[in-house]
Amino acid sequence: MIVTIKDVAKEANVAPSTVSRVISNSPRISEKTKKRVREVMEQLGYHPNFQARSLAAKSTQAIGVIMPNSAYHAFQNPFFPEVLRGISTNAHTNKYGIYLSTGSTEDEIFEEVTSMVQGRRVDGIVLLYSRVNDKTMKFLQEADFPFTVVGRPDENEERVTYVDNDNIFITKQITNYLIKLGHTNIAFVGGSLDFVVTIDRLNGYKLALSEAGIPFNDEYLVNEELIKENGKKAITSLMNLQSPPTGLVTQDDLIAYEIISHLENMKIRVPDDVSIVSFNNLLLSEHSKPSITSVDIAIYQLGYEAAKCLIEIIKNPDLLPRRITIPTKIIERKSCANNKNISM
Amino acid sequence: MIVTIKDVAKEANVAPSTVSRVISNSPRISEKTKKRVREVMEQLGYHPNFQARSLAAKSTQAIGVIMPNSAYHAFQNPFFPEVLRGISTNAHTNKYGIYLSTGSTEDEIFEEVTSMVQGRRVDGIVLLYSRVNDKTMKFLQEADFPFTVVGRPDENEERVTYVDNDNIFITKQITNYLIKLGHTNIAFVGGSLDFVVTIDRLNGYKLALSEAGIPFNDEYLVNEELIKENGKKAITSLMNLQSPPTGLVTQDDLIAYEIISHLENMKIRVPDDVSIVSFNNLLLSEHSKPSITSVDIAIYQLGYEAAKCLIEIIKNPDLLPRRITIPTKIIERKSCANNKNISM
DNA sequence: CTGAAAGCGCTAACAC
DNA sequence: GTGTTAGCGCTTTCAG
């Protein structure tokens, strides 16, 4: 019923190894026999068995993608499909399949990764997040297993290959943009400081402030999670500060929309009263009211390069680690205005 | 370096077959030896090799998820991460992995599916779309390979297991909602008629019209793709009809946002001048201006059930095909109003 | 209750 | 250029 390499070999009057070589298109086989074997394969409807091939060749032709499925990384966020699309496009052109893992907790992720690695389910792994002191990443390093990460690793930066934006720089830029519009009371809305991306962006923000001689005020630090839990409360308390912010640096357009909605409920207008800048430049941000000034971080590219580097490493494990920086672009729209209070 | 079942066997003074039985928790092994073997496994850091197991047992413990990566299925749409989350949650609790395939064209998808099936990469497949006359689905049926689909199959409905909303009914309902508000000029914005979901929803829409005695006008049929390509043009020509619509039934909140944005540019107010209803109930739709009345189709559930049914079929191939209908809910918000022209 | 041994379908030396 | 053969690591009869 199942047609194997032996059946093909018999039918084509060659040895199984010859068929195997035809499959891998070995140059040591004459075009004539290649042609004949391929015809038989076609005729018999032969398809190589991945498991058997993996077992014998010790390569699975699949890469694992670790995608945190947590409250932190809101799943309704288009970030993930977009990176995935990048990864899968590259993987596919290199004939690699994608094995997806979505753990909810750190332990679950760790468990899945170890079993993927030890059980040889995949040839390499791309990590879609970078958190401080991550045992999964440590495990991967210690096991010397091929992996790349989307984001900057917390530790051993020089020893892992990763793809990232220059988050410090770009956040400094976008904060400067607000400063140049006359804003000095600028809040930073970000995710957990367990994630390196948050740390980097916060540093960029602080850098811009300090270069402009604006003191850092930690009342202006808002945790994204608080907004997701109870946005109204979080925004209310922010705007009820003695000197409420007139500018907001947000990490994600989705959060920006939500904040704007709450502000409007409080009769605070964007951009008239408060200016807001954000990241990710979702398609939608062009059409929202107001349209949002957002940093395009080239999500697709991030995924594409991460897969590309990973496959290079798989093919040549001695490759030196490297950092790929994906350029970003500030897309200026209508969510920012000059600070009205500038003369105060 | 790699610890195999033999190493464990030697260390525990049993035969490899015994270790194998311990792994599958065979009742024929005494608790005593189970315990001992497990200790050795732990101590040696043993992890079973998936490939070898698959090859010998002819089961991969992985399900394939086919996700069309096309312009039609805008990838920035949160639909996919959300179904995926449902699928992966269920798969994971059943100890199945997820193998992802994202083809861009019909042929690419077909190619990937055949190779997944014939190459025994997966034990079953969930199809994340249903299109008219789909050769991939036909192939799966003919090969008698376990699969489920999210959406209603075009053909052989009674012979495949699928998970869907009652799209005809719910679209009729939501159209009725508009009719009850006094709208008679109601446009339908939908995707390609190659997709069964579009066909069903269009039928629901037509049903509502006909029951209300409103003639169907095909000038009110707008193709979603046109909006994605050139929304401005599409909306302009719709609103410049002799009698422009005062109500809109849209297939996706994302499209709704975009339409609203174009309408506002034309100084047409939502909901004052035009009412709009939509599907998917994205998180965001609560915060958009105006907030959108949308059908919650329980995307997560759709995925969860599709995976559940698939795994049941894999475990018991003789199971009869069945249809799972996931209930929907209309979430009323602020994008609709009574028709001002009602007295005209 | 446990062991021995024969594969699963393929690849990769090693021959010739 | 092509064939022979010995595994890859596991499961599964069949014995005992």
UniProtKB/TrEMBL annotation, chains A, B:
Ranges for domain HTH lacI-type: 3-57
Domain of life: Bacteria
The entry's keywords: DNA-binding, Transcription, Transcription regulation
Pfam families associated with the record: LacI, Peripla_BP_3
Keyword DNA-binding: yes
GO MF assignments: DNA binding
Gene3D superfamilies per UniProt: 3.40.50.2300, lambda repressor-like DNA-binding domains
UniProt-recorded name of the protein: LacI family DNA-binding transcriptional regulator
Organism name: Metabacillus bambusae
Source taxonomy: Bacteria, Bacillati, Bacillota, Bacilli, Bacillales
